[in-house]
Amino acid sequence: MADKIEKGPIKTEDYPISSEGNVDLIIAHELGRRLSVENFRDVYGDERIDAAIRDQLNIKAGFVEQFKKDVDNAVKDIQDPDLREKEREKVRKAMIRGELRNKALETLVRENIEMGNWFGENAYAIRTTEYDDLKNGVDVVVEFDSEDGDKIALSIDVSLKASTVHRKIFRNFLKIKNGGAKVEFFASQIQGSNFKGEIQGVIPVAIGIDGANADAFFDRQAQMIRLEKSIDVAVDKGLKDTLQKKYDELFIEAQNDPIQLVYINEILAQVIRIAEELRGDEKNETLFRSAEKLKRIFEDILEEKKKRGMELGVLKKDLAYLSIVGAVEMRTKKASA
Question: Which domain of life is it from (predicted)?
Fold first, then answer.
């Protein structure tokens, strides 16, 4: 089984019950759970790990520079120096909050796939190392332990912006033509597996939900984290039982959240298109078989959710969802033209 990093204690009272406080709490709750490249020294040795750490720092430095440029570009047309500085600070804070919200969403996607069975009982999800997130554009890897013994990995790039996710779709199709995605520091979560190392030929997909529709998701998860802490410290049995009942209610609500239908539909649309584009491509035959199997897996998952009465509801108008579906339809039309 993969190495685990124990999370440190957090004080929920340090995080106010607010939109920002909830996001910060979700991120803090995951700190220490995410694998680090340091966990792979036994696999790769010191030289490879030290090089990866340097590479990671360089990539982050590049992102910092690009961040500064983006902020400057957003305020470049403001002539008044004082007003420009005020607006620059406002833009900078908004962009930082956006990045934190995206990190929180990555965390919740992994947790709900794993704990809420969003993608079925045979799906195992893991947050990638920060290195693979930055270098290879993979936020989450989902493994499927199928009945025939074949193990399939799906790499997921999580987004909160419709414009961003549209771009990621086309980038992933380029990856597919070049053999798929790779994760250099991967630790299998499938029971009985002790694999640690690099995986290649992974089907990459992008998933998204608009920021406005994620707020309730954040709020509920933060409430569950606070309840967990309160249950742990509660001494009175009656209070403990009341808190546990509320937690269980929220857990069931999370299991039935229609956000999972958004993601399932987004992934299914992409793997169907990927399979079609790889059909007959001899050098990518293995990828084609993986896409076909993922297609069947997600068709079965979707059917099971529908049998339970789950519906997209208002989320069928989610901007990120429409952007992904539209990008796939555009590529399909182009291929048939």
Answer: Bacteria
